[in-house]
Amino acid sequence: MGLREPHDGFDQKGGAEFVTMERGLRNYLVVTGGYWAFTLTDGAIRMLVVLYFHQLGYSPFEVAMLFLFYEFFGIVTNLVGGWLGARIGLNLTMNIGMAMQVVALAMLTVPDAWLSVAYVMAAQALSGIAKDLNKMSAKASVKTMVSGEGGSALFKWVAILTGSKNALKGGGFFVGAALLEWLGFRSALAVLAGSLFIVMLITVVMLPSGIGKMKSKPKFTQVFSKIPAINWLSAARFFLFGSRDVWFVVGLPVFLYDVLGWTPTQVGTFLALWVIGYGVVQASAPKLLRRSRHGHGPGGGAARLWAFVLALFPAGIALALHQGWSADQVLIVGLILFGVVFAINSAVHSYLILAYSDHDNVSMNVGFYYMANAGGRLAGTVLSGLVYQTQGLEGCLWWSTAFVIAAGLLSYALPAIKQASVSGGEDV
After folding, report:
1. CATH for 222-417?
2. Which fold has domain 1-213?
3. HSE-up of 220 (CA within 13 Å, CB side)?
């Protein structure tokens, strides 16, 4: 098996024409490089907005509201992104996503007097659409480049792409915080926008047209899943990711900066290292779980078990802070442990969405599943600012505990996996 040249999906009497490994590898590297560049800017803009607008005097809830449209439009884009890519081509949706991110970055370079909550929310809405268009396009494009009927080659190449994604997201947190401290808010945004624009031009020139474009247009109603297990898993995913963002997005960075007196670079570095470590554990978890089950993938029972284990950590951190333990030590150790178990939870969910899906509808099912994922991020983001402002970081942690317990209870409806064959990979 190897990489192949993407084609437009139209029958050409002999099917897709296979080209050299070098040509396919080049296309894969172009897609991966574009995804890396975008992911770096996505992490950077989030850290820039949180820290800079907090410095301007925005309340934690107001900071959270800046991301409301970012997360909301992520839900919409996840729902329709695959359907849109099948109609106009994945290379086009990827480049549209990059162009929208460049515009979103440029919009924030205006004077402070222009940076109202509504204006920044509009810029973040563009960024949210851009992020999920880019993510969907990059993942699906890789699938079109893999030859053969089996899934091992697809799993290999997508694993490389997704395994690096979280490291780059974490790197973006550091880059955003560091650029804010070194260059200032507007200069940092200009550097990010200019760099991404150059990458976009490279992908436009180097990628063939019509990647993933299908002759048979799928109906929009096909984006909604009719499989009960996928609906229950999506509901559990909503609460799982809400449990992370309810304290991670606004409450934690503001607490580190405002209460503990950390510099923006220290905050960005710590959160960057956490996301990078999370990605490493996440990439390793599927192998460890399969090994522990003698080669079989985890089932619904594993989702329940790891959810209830995860609930112990935000509750434990909240209790430790309430008892007056050193906040620095409690948060550093607690967040590391939370990240390890959270990564295992996420890996289990990502396996189950593939195992519950049939081969023909896996893309649509995964899109529906990531719509729920984005919904959980939206709820967690809004609550992170609101709860931190009214109940402090301890309140955020108790809400996180409740969300994880909800994910565990919903997982009781998930069936066991008798025979699970992962035919492909998606973002974990």
Report:
1. 1.20.1250.20
2. Growth Hormone; Chain: A; (1.20.1250)
3. 5
